[in-house]
Amino acid sequence: MKRFTIFLLFTFLGAFAHAEEITVHVDGMVCSFCAQGIIKKFQEQPGVEKVNVSLEEKSVTITTAKDKTLSDKAIRQSVDWAGYTTVDIQRAGGTQ
Amino acid sequence: MTSLAPERTEVQANYSITNRFALGTDYVRIPYRSDDAHFGILRANALLYRANRPSSQGNIYAYAGGGVREYAGDENAAFYYGGEADWESRKHYVSFRGQSLRSADRLNFDEFRARVGIAPYVADFESLHTWLIAQGMYETSAESQFTWAPMVRMFYRNVLWETGVSTRGEFLLNTIIHF
Question: Cβ–Cβ contacts within 10 Å for residue B179, how many?
Fold first, then answer.
């Protein structure tokens, strides 16, 4: 019973150790040379593991490290600093 | 950023202080009569206005600076100012630029440039981008003041280069690297 309880506890805790994928839709991002700055800006944020840009989708997808997240404020500031306008932010749980 | 042409050579380095303001240095060589005028300028670049739309971006910039000019062994204070406006989508591009290098002894050089560009194919972020650009330029110091040049611009990741030949038969090369 004790072993079962410990097993359940580790399984429960393991469920929270996941990376977050955040998709940010952006206005004005039409030039990949100019958009290099947006990758650099997001990579400077703590907890960001991967940044992908799609000019076709007009979006930036950020993957965080496990148990890390990025606030909406930090996202909007990074997009603004790179010279673009945030349209919306989509996380696994829904649009913001 | 470097720019090479028989009538002009320019090397710039700029650092963004904020997303709307940058400081930089600028070296410009301009042939004039029997010698070259050399300018060393400390410059400020300001983004005055930006319009971000879903499929396009428009910008207005202003530039200003000061430094020194050397010509035929004579040195003098120099001033620089200019402005630029551009609009681009993933397939089309237009820009207009006017800039002036002025010296305290009135040895002045003005330049106006207009560009129209089109992308023969639309590339995504990690691909090689190519643009075909028609450039028109008016330079007050040049023997032949009006020139036209077809140019090819390419960029991949953080490196951009453009090359062309003007109607004066001059080879043009510009490069920009983002760090």
Answer: 7
